[in-house]
Amino acid sequence: MKPAMMEYYAPTRLDEATTLLAEAAENGGKVIAGGQSLIPMMNFRLVRPPVLIDLGGVAELTSMEATDSHLSLGAMVTTATITSSDLVRRNWPLLAHAATWVGHDQIRNRGTVGGSLVHADPSAEMPAVMLLADAGLEVRSATGSRTVDAADFFWGYMSTALEEDEILVRLTLEIPPPGTRWGFCEFAQRHGDFAEAGAACLLPPGGQPRVVAFGAADRPFRATETESVLLAGPAVDAEKLRRAASEDAAQAEVKDRTKVRLLGTMVQRAIAMARDQQV
Ligand SMILES: Cc1cc2nc3c(=O)[nH]c(=O)nc-3n(C[C@H](O)[C@H](O)[C@H](O)COP(=O)(O)OP(=O)(O)OC[C@H]3O[C@@H](n4cnc5c(N)ncnc54)[C@H](O)[C@@H]3O)c2cc1C
What are the tens digits of pLDDT across the range 210-231? Predict the structure, then answer.
C-alpha cells in the first residue's frame, strides 16, 4: 500500500522547520528523518500525517563535535555515520559498536539517531545507549528549547517526553574517563533483527558502574541491583549477577520468564566483554 496524500515541506533551516511544525502539529503533521520507521507505518496507514516536514536538508542537525568532556551529535546523524566516525569511536566506542547492531546497511544508511530516539522502540539500541550515557537531549519548538535527560525521555512503548510541536535537535554525552571498561551484548533471532533482550555496561575505574537493559520491558531501564553488585569490581560471581539481573527485571515488570533468563545472560555477557574493552 502507498501512504495517504500529504503536503510535503523541505526546510533548510531549523527555525523554518520548527515554524512549519508549530502550524502542522495540531492536525497530526510530523517531521520525517530517515523514514525507516515512519514510511512503513504510513504505507500500512497506521499513521496518516497530513503534512510531512523533511529534516534531511537541515544541515545544522548533522554536525558532530567533541570537547575534552563531551561528545555531541545532531539528531540527523545517521546510524551508519555513528558506526564509522573516528570521533565517535575514539570518544564513545560503545556507541559506535551498538550502532552496528541496528538493522542492516540500508537501514543504517538512512536511519538517524534522533529518529530512533523519538520512535522509542523498547528493543532499539540507541535509546539504551543514551540512557547508559545519561545523555542530554536538546529539543526545540518555535517558542523555545529545553534539554531533557535520557532518563526522563522514554515514557513507555513508543512514547516519549517530546511534545508534538518539538523537534529533537542534539544529543550530548559525557565522555567516559580513560580506563573505563565497556560491554554491549544483545540477542536477536537473526543479526539485524530487533533485540529480544540486550544489555550494556560502563565500568569507570573506581567509579559508579552503570548497566542498562533493553528489549524486555516497555522501555530501556537501569539495572540498579546489578550496578550495586558490580561496585565490588567486575569479577563477580555469576550466580550473584544472575540473581541481581532477575531482581532488576522484576522491578522493570518483565513478566516473560524466558526474557528474564535471557536478560540475565545478556547482562553477564556484557560484563564479561567489558573485561577486554576499554575507552
Ligand atoms: C527492516 C528494519 C529493521 C530495523 N532494525 C532495527 C534494529 O535492529 N534496531 C533499531 O534500533 N532500529 C531498527 N530499525 C529502525 C531504524 O533504526 C529506524 O531508522 C529508526 O527507528 C527511526 O529512524 P529514522 O531516522 O528512520 O526516523 P523516521 O522513520 O523518519 O521517524 C520515526 C519517528 O520519529 C520522528 N522523528 C524523527 N526524527 C525526529 C526529530 N529529530 N525530532 C522529532 N521527531 C523526529 C518522526 O516524526 C517519526 O514519528 C529497523 C527498521 C527496519 C525497516
Answer: 999 999 999 999 999 999 999 8
